[in-house]
Amino acid sequence: MSFSVCDHALLRHRMASLRDRATPSNAFREILAEIGAILVTEALRAQPETTRPVATPLEIMEHPVLACPPPVLVAVLRAGLGLLEGARRVLPEAPIGHIGLVRDETTLKPSGYLQRLPPGLETRGALLLDPMLATGGSAVAAIDQLKSAGCARIQFLCVVAAPEGVARLVAAHPDVPILAAALDRELDARGYILPGLGDAGDRCFGTEA
Ligand SMILES: O=P(O)(O)OC[C@H]1O[C@H](OP(=O)(O)OP(=O)(O)O)[C@H](O)[C@@H]1O
Ligand SMILES: O=c1cc[nH]c(=O)[nH]1
Ligand SMILES: [Mg+2]
């Protein structure tokens, strides 16, 4: 199994503001984007490299560059759009896909309402973006969809993970590495992560009651 928490002081600093109930929606979106940029940067740390000649103003050198086209960025709607904003800033050349899922608040089961995936998933692989890994039902469903579309190399990037969600995702898709900004304590009776940050989609788009 591969579950890791991104070890970065700036990330932990940003997480304090993201979790804070007093942080308004516009600031929440901006911080989520910054965290998306940090997580994608970390996820690509060990990408295969090659070299190409680069002419500086003084001489020609062989410079390291990425050996393969970047992975597809796939956002799980809605809250994944917040991470996507920052992911696009650090990987502007990556194609983008969307998977729409919403969790039934009573059964906690996800249902799908949209899938738009670009070509190239088979060769590029995907970084799947969703801030919350709670019961794990949504992540498992999104990865099922990506695999059905022919995508074999997937990394799941989230902001807050619950132990229950990590266990479920690892059991269902042991080949998918999970990178989180934080591992929290547990789920409450309504399936919310504790201490968590509340409903990421609602906080992102100002739809909380
Ligand atoms: O691990 P799970 O128990 O499946 O819960 C996690 C899901 O819940 C949230 O989405 P939500 O269903 O609230 O949709 P939203 O982003 O539109 O608010 C979150 O962004 C995940 O997709
Ligand atoms: O704590 C949680 C759990 C699921 N989805 C969220 O947005 N937050
Ligand atoms: Mg929500």
TrEMBL record:
GO cellular component, one term: cytoplasm
Essential cofactor(s): Mg(2+)
EC code(s) of this entry: 2.4.2.9
Pathway the protein contributes to: Pyrimidine metabolism; UMP biosynthesis via salvage pathway; UMP from uracil: step 1/1
UniProt organism field: Plastoroseomonas arctica
Stated role: Catalyzes the conversion of uracil and 5-phospho-alpha-D-ribose 1-diphosphate (PRPP) to UMP and diphosphate.
Gene Ontology MF, one: uracil phosphoribosyltransferase activity
GO annotation, biological process: uracil salvage
Start and end residues of each Phosphoribosyltransferase domain: 5-207
Enzymatic reactions: UMP + diphosphate = 5-phospho-alpha-D-ribose 1-diphosphate + uracil
Family from the record: Belongs to the UPRTase family.
Protein name in UniProt: Uracil phosphoribosyltransferase
